[in-house]
């Protein structure tokens, strides 16, 4: 038996704030550039001052005070940005950790058959009047194909009962699948989505990643649905 359920919610809001890149280095560079330009301007003024009417100590002191103020503001901005980046990173890690033990759908064409059941998904760019799923074994031989009929645009989940086209139960293991979607006889783009369980969360150089079954590290941006 094959069941199809339409996605009832989007995980986009969760991932919008995840994997935020740090901009502290850019802010430090901007602060250094501001200080450098300020000092060059002050030195230029002193070099080109009128020898008969030089800048007095009060003028120099005033300009140095302005430099100190600007530098202090820049340093404060850098500190606040670093603190903000750290908070976002920690929140991202905590939110990702809550996904451990949950199933997710990510781009992929694999189907892991276990205990007589296999799962997958399709991301449709538009509604279709026909959606066909074909499942193959590791040798590339067709095991099962079925039609899911008309489907609306968006995420479509499907479940495989572990039987071949003759009604016989297949062995547990790894399979692959393809999706063929059409609307009025014209082919429609359909992204194949692979199901996997989140085992752990990794904080890597590229941001937070999920360890998903045999798929290994998966970026949070690749997750299409949390089940």
Sequence-ordered SSE layout with sheet pairings:
Elements: E1 4-6, H1 12-16, H2 24-47, H3 57-97, E2 103-107, E3 110-113, E4 118-124, E5 130-136, E6 142-147, E7 154-160, E8 173-183, E9 186-188, E10 190-204, E11 207-212, E12 216-219, E13 225-226
Antiparallel strand pairs: 1-7, 2-10, 2-13, 3-8, 4-7, 4-10, 5-6, 5-8, 8-9, 10-11, 11-12
Molecular structure report:
The chain has helices at residues 12-16, 24-47, 57-97; strands spanning 4-6, 103-107, 110-113, 118-124, 130-136, 142-147, 154-160, 173-183, 186-188, 190-204, 207-212, 216-219, 225-226. The longest helix has 41 residues, at 57-97. The strands form 2 sheets. Strands 1, 2, 4, 7, 10, 11, 12 and 13 form an 8-stranded antiparallel beta sheet that branches. Strands 3, 5, 6, 8 and 9 form a 5-stranded antiparallel beta sheet that branches. The protein has 227 residues and is an alpha+beta fold. Strand 8 (173-183) and strand 9 (186-188) form a beta hairpin. It is 31% helix and 35% strand. It has 2 domains: 18-97; 102-226, Immunoglobulin-like (Sandwich), CATH 2.60.40.4070. Helix 2 packs antiparallel against helix 3 (57-97). It starts with a strand and ends with a strand.
